[in-house]
Amino acid sequence: MEERELRTLIGAVKAGTLSRRRFVQMMVGLGLTAPMAAQMLASAGVAQAQTKWTFNPTKRGGGGLVKTLWWQAPTLLNPHFANGTKDQDACRIFYEPLGGYDPDGNIVPVLAAEVPSLQNGQVAKDGLSVTWRLKKNVAWHDGKPFTADDVVFNWEYVMDSGTAAVTVSQYRDISRIDKLDSHTVKLVFKSPMPFWSAGFCGPSGMIIPKHLFQAFKGDKSREAPTNLKPVGTGPYKFVDFKPGDIVRGELNSTYHVPNRPFFDQIEMKGGGDAASAARAVLQTAEFDYAWNMQVEDEILKRWEQGGKGRADIVSGGNIEHIQLNFTDPWT
Questions:
Q1: What is the Cα 286 distance to its own chain's centre?
Q2: CA torsion sign, 316 to 68 to 234 to 156?
Q3: Is residue 24 part of a domain?
Q4: Within its chain, how far is the Cα of 159 from the centroid?
């Protein structure tokens, strides 16, 4: 795509003739991620849309147990060692990033008090720094306070080559992180950075507690007990984990988001195949939710008609592709 065509599309979003979601989908089709597409709009001066949630509970808890099913089971509960979506999703039950992304690619605050922008002065005009203000009165599941020290530590933890974090590519453009006060950090980049949210937002941005991981940075990173027994800030506290099988959590009664979570307990079960997982929701209702059901449409529709569940098709930011292995000449 030429620059002229890209400018035309951004202009259409500004004019309201092209939706943000459609623009993001088009950019994803070209090989960009949804957050990158959203950052392109932000850099072009397109105001971020206000996220409208479809579910707004009036109290915390009361939803009982929710049983979820993945066709692969998690093997570790440290987001910086996540081996694919199965581990990232399991970690997200307990850990949180500074920000996440809504269906239109907008950044939404999670552990951050607000989203940095040019308008609020937290994104530098030269693209060399971004300032994050953190929520106050957020606690780790063991009662310790969440502070700027945890954010700084996560970058140090990931960038230590001995740690061998799989998330390192999202943080390597940061030259340093300045702690401005107990709940404010400033990220300084090596060069102008249009995609400044990459490091601390989304699956790669989940924050782990400094006080529990500090002794396990570097070569000892795989020895941390909390790799299997997470202590996060998220909506659920750790109950049990059987690697390659199931992870369980219980409601965090002091969660920092009002009236959340809705469910009192959560189970994430893995294993089997996509068809079996879909059948366990649509036909037998053994589980409440299953993800990534790569099953033919006609089969899903047939199971829906005579079953107890429904299939919801949602556009995502991933692209089906084939990667070539250039390291082995015989493959």
A1: 27
A2: negative
A3: yes
A4: 20
Using CA atoms, how far apart are residues 282 and 304, in angstroms rounded to an integer?
Answer: 6
Q: Centre a 10 Å sphere on the Cβ of residue 328 and count the other Cβ atoms it contains.
A: 6
Q: Which helix (H) or strand (E) holds 277?
A: helix 274-282
Are residues 222 and 106 both part of a single domain?
Answer: yes
Kindly report, residue by residue over 142-170, the tens digit of the pLDDT.
999 999 999 999 999 999 999 999 999 99
CATH of the domain at 172: 3.40.190.10
Same domain (yes/no): 19, 100: no
- Among residues 108, 114, 218, which one has the least CA distance to residue 164? 218
Q: What is the pTM of this model?
A: 0.86
Residue 55 domain flag: no
Could you give phi then psi for residue 176, rounded to 5 degrees? -165, 165
Q: Please give the Cα distance from 107 to 104 (Å, whole number).
A: 9
In this structure, is residue 215 part of a structural domain? yes
Q: Which of 331, 52, 55, 34 is nearest to 201 (CA)?
A: 34
CA dist 127 and 196 (Å) reads 8
Give the separation between CA 137 and CA 247, rounded to whole angstroms: 27
